[in-house]
Amino acid sequence: MNNEHKETPIPFDIVNRVIKESGISKVGKASIREIVRLINIIEEESGQKFIRMEMGVPGFPPSQIGVDAEIEALKNGVAGVYPEIEGIPELKNEASRFVKLFLNLDIKPESIIPTVGSMQGSFVSFMVSCRRDSNKDTALFLDPCFPLHKQQQNILGLKYKAFDVYNYRGEKLRDKLESYLHEKNISTIIYSNPNNPSWMCFSNDELKIIGELATKYGVIVIEDLAYFAMDFRQDYSIPGSPPYQPTIANYTDNYILLISSSKVFSYAGQRIGIMAINNKLFHQSFPNLLKYFPGEKFGTAIIHGAIYAVTAGVSHSTQKGLTAMFKTVNDNSYNLIAGVKEYGERAKIMKRLLLENGFKIVYEYDLDKKIADGFYFTFCYPGMTAEDLIEELLYYGISAISLDITGSERSDGLRACVSHVGLDQMKDFEERLKAFQRNNANRV
Q: How far apart are CA 14 and CA 338, in angstroms?
């Protein structure tokens, strides 16, 4: 970066030296964790706080309802008792109520299993779904996506294909999907809804297309609902009352839903979520599973094969905490999204400030509507690649990650997470963007 003769919010000498000492040859290609470490050092040496948008982690305190329930459970001695691998009955019952009240789905408690975060949910879903049929050995990612899901595939030695779905929205999605599915080797389709990183949300028409094709070709859809009810354009937070969170489950029986406590309950540190499996799929037999697991039934392979081998279940006290959180929102004693709606306010302000200072939104539209204001958004600066933009922004005390690692086709784009940018930082954000625009306007 040629910033030596530019006035930047973070002194050039400090940033330049820290980058050199880090041993990172190209900051724009660094991993998220490497960027986090780099910024921590720059903050410490400069004494200035960054506008930190690189990590997709909660920005609010954890649900006190869950914390109190865990404390009570620990006092009652659950730390000395193994929980059932399939989940404690009270959690399975409340989770079944939750999916009925907020998704309008009838999923039996037996088909709902707690996992060590949605990450374990996806891991064991891949482990079983991709081995149920020797002819179906490849997963299909609807990119952009959460990059660790592909890492899980690599760890398991499984194959995958992917495409950036942004240019195949609406009815165009059907032909694009079928171009992969007609080969008959696709085992699973995975996506997040809302999408990480773009914050796109599939419409019911698109979900119907995916569901119909999943049924036609015998493909299991893994729907990651990590940001449950956080498309704030609709209010999905009233239990038992439409509109409900959109889901693939309305259009096929071949599904696994991953529901996280990390974002909507700000409960990321306790690593607990649930996987909700269609009742029919849960009991379906696949003889090929006997090569790997103790039973050929899908649910048996998930619980007594994959989960037992990986963690032997989920921490007893955290199950008690999630039970309490589900019960409180199920009973309508606490609004599901009350603690996270501010994310939308932050995103709206941040996107406006970026646009006013020469930046562009990368994934700008959700079909014919503007992308919602939520946990993530994507942006770029004309004339700069993502690699160069990440490094340049360090001198202005702003951090983000490249879309390159998400399977996006946009090599100029960055992902921003709003969770750690408080409303009290917006003025500072604006001033830093103005400084960036003054020094880089000639690129446009």
A: 41
